[in-house]
Design a protein that fits this description.
mainly alpha
Amino acid sequence: MPYGFPLPTTSALSFVGCFESNSHPSLIPVATVHREILRANLKKHKRLPLPSQAFNLTVVISALLDYLPYLFALDAGLSGKSVSNEEIDVVLLKDVEVEWRPCVASCVAGREAARVRGRGLDYEICFVLTTLAYAYTLMARGQLLTLYAVTLPTSEQRAAAISNAKNYLLEANSLHTYTASKANEFTPPPAAVDICSFAQSGLASLAMSEATLLVVTKEDLYPALVAQDRNKNDRDWMIKAPDIPKVRVGLFTKFSLAAGEDAGRAHAHLTSLKNTRGSVAVDDSLTKYVDDLRKTSRAKACRFFGIEAELSGKTGEAIAWLDAGKKELGFKSNEEEGSKTQVFAKFKKSWAERKEDRKIVKGADWGSDAGRFEEARVLEMLDKKWNKENDLISSQRIPPSDPLRATLSSGRKIHTPKTYIPPSLDAETLVRMRAPPETGDEAPTLVGDSDDNEDETSHGGAVPGAFPAAIASSVV
């Protein structure tokens, strides 16, 4: 968590042949230069090995932020709007035609989705904003990866990492929300799945769900205790027993349920998009992640209900809530375990958990289960502790868990969605744009636009064991 979006790549594009400006003649070639810088950075990012891509994200984000003010200035000039209280005259010579490679479209395993051609400046704006939102989500992933480092972070470092990740996700939410409203203006709807209004609404709900869940994670120390317990390099157990936190269970229950509701909305939006064959147009890994996030959020709510019951002395009810959480995750509860089939299922789950641990160590493709296995470990830790207490001290009857699951109510929102404000060029930059283009501002010669040169197979995209022809054909 959060989802590991790949960043798209794009074809070459010169605005010089598409627009003309008598009031600000330097605006169009300078915008082309910034666009080419972004394109080069996206190509470079894709070719980097997965562990190195995290360190290159700031370069990509900087290129996106530098390009956006010029892009919106062109849009304002075409629409007759002012920029920094100054009118910009932009004349359309011909429609912008550009290709972007979608990142969330379903495709054949081991191959990338083909680049999709679109017309109009809005197509370019929507893809650039979506790319920035993906980059912010990846920055949030990088912050949260520090929570699972070999050297466990201090409480201050943990809180700072979670807070930074939350802010990145809220920025991503605002970008997706803005893009969803802009995508509604397309007639007909765009062919690229990424910038469809339904997809953008789903991605906005996904980012909000993840940001809401991080508020819970910031003060929920049980996952940290589980991570500490499975860290082979940790030696704190030799000094003192871990402190079990007394959390604000009432609020955290509501926040977890709200995160589950947002994840449910995201899943509904994303699965509603169909391709020409009638199947879901969004990649299966994304829809599965969103569904796992919904399950994890509801399981957390069950766990907090259980903590509240245990603090009130109702150990039997607390254990039943843990069983309810396991069912929400899709695992079998204590009352259903015992058969040979369930023994095999338990072994399979343990193997999947170890596989996820190896992904975390490598720092690539981790968190694809949306924290589902981590939450299962927390439930098992508490189940073992509370069952032992109940057997030795309380001896309370454990009620069935299904009636408890039926009582889960609606959640409580904690974040107010931010409104994205498009960046604009400052007055000083606009003054410079009035001058004729200098030699260094002329539109660059755009080369390497053929598919073979545009997107070489990256280190992260190669499929181990695939035939060379399959790898070559993935560059469409």
